[in-house]
């Protein structure tokens, strides 16, 4: 019992990219730049959505929530990773690991469900344009976001204590750059199959079910677009959904590819870079995707910056 509490007293060692010491300074510089861009971009999106009355619509309400989640997602682990990359100290306190795991599980789950909510919003906009504001009324938008937040928090509240209380027999080395659920479960020196099965159940409900709903929504959207006779109309409908579809592809593509890899050492390194991709690169790209392809956001940015009346 005493050895199982060693990590509680001394914390954990995040192995991260220490197997590639020559890469660490390069990764520090690149990740610092990407994190700064992600923080600036997502903060700007949130600010613009709040300040410009023209963006007080369901789509931008969901977008502001997505930007806030991206901020939380990156901030939950990237600053700690930058500290570990900068110097020889690779440790993280037990409390820090708990916070990191809880944040990662909750925010990741919320984002999966929020992307499904945004897909339903795009379905209503394309397939039911005349009834869009009636369908997506403010109360429904708040309820949908509350469901997303509630589901993600339940996932974290259940899985975090179960994972952290697994006996590790004094093992402190986490083969990752953050306290991620699979890496912590692998450290257990007891039978963790029950925790793994519960984790799989939550993954089906929080990751795969929202993905199925997204695919169904876009199936209906594709059918509606194909019924539009004019090329201009089809392009307008596609443009309405293209930003969200790009974000979904980046986020889910990296997650699905990562968890389909076998458990060898090369795939573990690959997994670290893929985790870094959806934890940092995707949050950095999301504001750019929505800004570059969206005239309303561009106009709001110009207005906030004082470039137009």
Automatic annotation (TrEMBL):
Main localization category: membrane
Protein name: Olfactory receptor
Gene3D superfamilies, sorted: Rhodopsin 7-helix transmembrane proteins
Localization per Swiss-Prot or TrEMBL: Cell membrane
InterPro entries to which the protein is assigned, alphabetical: GPCR_Rhodpsn, GPCR_Rhodpsn_7TM, Olfact_rcpt
Organism expressing this protein natively: Echinops telfairi (Lesser hedgehog tenrec)
Membrane topology: Multi-pass membrane protein
Signal peptide start-end: none
Pfam families: 7tm_4
Family (UniProt): Belongs to the G-protein coupled receptor 1 family.
CDD domains: 7tmA_OR2W-like
Gene name per UniProt: LOC101664213
PROSITE patterns on file: G_PROTEIN_RECEP_F1_1, G_PROTEIN_RECEP_F1_2
G-protein coupled receptors family 1 profile domain: residues covered: 41-290
Domain of life from the UniProt record: Eukaryota
Keywords assigned: Cell membrane, G-protein coupled receptor, Membrane, Olfaction, Receptor, Sensory transduction, Transducer, Transmembrane, Transmembrane helix
Transmembrane portions of the chain: 25-50, 62-86, 92-120, 140-158, 200-226, 238-260, 272-292
PANTHER family the record matches: OLFACTORY RECEPTOR
């Amino acid at each position: 019992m005493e050895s199982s509490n060693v990590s509680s007293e001394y914390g954990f060692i995040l192995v991260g990219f220490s197997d590639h010491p020559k890469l660490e300074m390069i990764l520090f510089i690149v990740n610092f730049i990407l994190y700064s861009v992600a923080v600036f971009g997502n903060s700007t999106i949130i600010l613009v959505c709040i300040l410009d009355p023209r963006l007080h619509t369901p789509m931008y309400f969901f977008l502001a929530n997505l930007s806030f989640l991206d901020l939380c997602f990156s901030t939950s682990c990237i600053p700690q990773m930058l500290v570990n990359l900068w110097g020889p100290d690779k440790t993280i306190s037990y409390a820090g690991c708990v916070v990191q795991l809880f944040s990662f599980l909750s925010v990741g789950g919320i984002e999966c469900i929020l992307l499904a909510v945004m897909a339903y919003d795009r379905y209503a906009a394309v397939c039911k344009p005349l009834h869009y504001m009636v369908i997506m009324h403010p109360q429904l938008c708040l309820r949908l976001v509350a469901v997303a937040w509630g589901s993600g928090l339940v996932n974290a509240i259940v899985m975090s204590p179960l994972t952290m209380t697994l006996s590790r027999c004094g093992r402190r080395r986490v083969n990752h750059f953050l306290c991620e659920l699979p890496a912590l479960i692998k450290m257990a020196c007891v039978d963790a199959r029950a925790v793994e099965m519960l984790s799989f159940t939550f993954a089906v409900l929080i990751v795969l079910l929202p993905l199925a709903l997204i695919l169904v929504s876009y199936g209906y959207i594709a059918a509606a677009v194909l019924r539009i006779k004019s090329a201009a109309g089809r392009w307008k409908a596609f443009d309405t959904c293209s930003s969200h579809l790009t974000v979904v592809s980046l986020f889910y593509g990296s997650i699905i590819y990562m968890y389909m890899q076998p458990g060898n050492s090369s795939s573990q390194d690959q997994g670290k870079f893929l985790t870094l991709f959806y934890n940092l690169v995707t949050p950095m790209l999301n504001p750019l995707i929505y800004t570059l392809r969206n005239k309303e956001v561009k106009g709001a940015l110009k207005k906030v910056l004082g470039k137009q009346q």
